[in-house]
Amino acid sequence: MAYSRIITITMRNKKIIVPLTIILLLLAALLSVIISGYTAINRAENQFAEKNYADAAESYQLAAQRFPWREDLWEKTGIAFASSSNFSQAIFYLEKLSAPSAEGLMWLSFSYQQLGNYPAAIQSIQQAIQINDLSNFYKILALLYRHEKDWTSERNALEDQLLRDSSDVYARYRLGLLLSVLEPEQALSNLMLASSLDPQFDPAAQTLRAALNLSATQPDASSQMVTIGRALGLVQEWDLSIVAFENAITLNAENAEAWAWLGEAKQQTDLDGRVELDQAAALDHTSVVVRALRGLYWNRQKKYPQMLAEYLLAARYEPENPAWQAELGNAYTLNGDLAIALTAYQHATELAPNDSTYWRLLAIFCNENGVYLENVGLPAAQKAVELAPDDPLALDTLGWSYLSTGRYANAEKILLDVIERYPELFSAHIHLAMTYLAQGNHPAAFNELTYVRDADSGGASGLFAEQLLAKYFP
């Protein structure tokens, strides 16, 4: 034969003669594959450590193709894709695994979550829990249930998390919030414990404690839920307030205030709420709470005549309540009737002559509309400060009134004092900037406006400061 060497291989009683050269070539090719696979693994690990996740994913993918029997490499490929925000590819590889690790399932859950598939995300993290019973997995599960508004399941997940790690103060606080609508008698202990462990939760915890205590004095369970729902709204937990108001309606479908507050809560969560507000008015057309909340609705819709009509009814039903007069003043202003608006604001101060709030609102009306500044607005602002000398809003309004009447030195002095004492009162910074502009001190005005723009980015004051910067510093 032409070959210098041959190898005889016996297969099932048959002899196959294979040239040695071919064997060596096959071994060399196999060795090259193995070497390139391990090289890809080393490269991937370095890239992942350097947070170069997209390249790491490609390197792990190459390694997995070289060693297709190694599921750990397929899993690392999926994790790297998830880390690089390529969630579709992450799911493709992680779903292929026959026995994924808890970490892989966590990343699979995260990928599903990022693509909006919350049921699949929940299922994946539940599988991870079966492998490794970690408190952090229950934390993730609670967040997923929260998104799905499955409040009972969220509560169970939080309780499981706290059983394994009681140090998560937010989990304790969140559990207290949930219990306030699910089992109010168990809520207070969790809220107060969270408050004692972290002062940032104290204001909300105190608000809810007052509501829970007040609800216990209510004559019926439906009214109790309305009280709790209103408190949840005060602490900006409107999703849960909806649950409370719906519970109140389930307990008593004739509770007009529950329907009205449900309409308000829905508006706060970007729903309409009109149907609920109409139902409230049908059940009790003389309720000032119903009328006030309907007035808010029409205000948001910019239907100012309808808004005015609601507050006229509220003022008729409670003629001695200064709040309705102030709301009437606002409604008349929005309808363009400043003379009657002034009368309404003044009537509010007559009904509550010792309340700084209504004097301040009267001064703000004058400042905003540039009317009656000397004879009404400035004296009202001074009266507000006289009644509440440490109220930052009253002091800010007085500074604004000084600015509006051309008393720039007085305005600068009081506004600087307000800012020193209350540095996060953005309106005072804006009024000080406007004072500086009136005095021709543009650098100082620029500094105040840029501070507000940056400190309240996306907020109402920040946006207004940005508009002023565009106007005066193009």
Biggest sheet character: 2 strands, antiparallel
Shape: globular
The percent of residues in helical segments reads over 70%
Structural class by secondary-structure content: mainly alpha
CATH superfamily of the domain at 379-474: Tetratricopeptide repeat domain
Point out poorly predicted stretches.
1-13
Strand order of the largest sheet: 1-2
Tell me the span between the first and last alpha carbons. Answer: 92 Å
Number of DSSP helices? Answer: 26
Strand content: under 5%
| CATH topology name of the domain at 379-474 | Serine Threonine Protein Phosphatase 5, Tetratricopeptide repeat
Topology pattern, helix = H, strand = E:
EEHHHHHHHHHHHHHHHHHHHHHHHHHH
The overall strand count is 2
Question: How large, in whole angstroms, is the Cα Rg?
Answer: 34 Å
**Average pLDDT value?**
91
What do you see in this structure?
There is one protein chain. Helices cover 76% and strands 3% of the residues. The chain has 474 residues and is mostly helical. Among the domains are: 20-99, Serine Threonine Protein Phosphatase 5, Tetratricopeptide repeat (Alpha Horseshoe), CATH 1.25.40; 379-474, Tetratricopeptide repeat domain (Serine Threonine Protein Phosphatase 5, Tetratricopeptide repeat, Alpha Horseshoe). It has a two-stranded antiparallel sheet with strand order 1-2. It is globular, with a radius of gyration of 34 Å. Residues 1-13 have low confidence and may be disordered.
